[in-house]
What does this fold into?
Amino acid sequence: MPRTLELDDGSGSIPALGFVLYKVAPEETERVVAAGLEAGYRLIDGAEFYGNEAALGAALAQAVDDGIDREALTVTSKFWGDPEQTPEAARRAFDASERALGTRIDVYMIHWPRPARERYVDVWRELVELQRGGRVRTIGVSNFTEQHVQRLIDETGVAPAINQVESHPWLPQHALRAFHAQHGIITQAWSPLGRARVLQDSTIGQIAGRHGVSPAQAVIRWHLQLGGALIPKSTHPHRLAENRDVEGFSLTDDDMAQIAALETGERTGTHPDDRQ
Ligand code: A2P
It folds into this structure.
């Protein structure tokens, strides 16, 4: 059975393991989504910025026609916030994403805090309204630091149910994960494989070898055993399937400690404070 994580806002649960459509070309999206659903994924991470929401919508419509239960799917979208990061722009973006998808959005997130603009708290209030109005099941943020999340809590009284951040063995985000745990926030890792670069690491290779699994499977298992959610990317059906086949083994405490020792703080993407 796929693992699920409870949302602290009482809106149910999400699968711990999904897949992302970042940089998947629109013309490839229907094929990738179909392959992901065929492999058993039920959480699909999309965003306005990925430019493929209409194709994702077409793939979802096809899947439902083919008998997949829409209620069992979790579909994420995110407010990009550029050129304008305002509550009105967030509402328009939400409406546009919902129209493009042709189905409800289950999880809506602020994609980046863009802290220099000083607008993310106002935008968060708009997401809270969307949820209270029944437009979206759950709301979260992406690329927020502890300081950004704390401000949301202090100024609105509402914590995000999910914070999606870059995390992989070089950037395990232990402190942020502990902070999230105190506030009932799910940590959802993007680039959980370090954009495949982490898979070349010899320690990861040795651990994977000992368990008879691939480096990607070992890293995915590490994320799950930390108690987090993750959205690895692949456009290949066999890798989508491989990445979900992670239940037949367990990393030992020693494996977990060896992976923890790989932390360098190296990012594959932008630091949350740096995106304007
Ligand atoms: P591809 O799409 O060709 O499968 P991340 O999720 O950390 O951003 O990593 C995504 C990258 O990792 C993509 O380039 C993807 O390539 C590659 N990848 C995903 N799954 C695997 C796997 N099981 N083995 C090797 N590479 C993988």
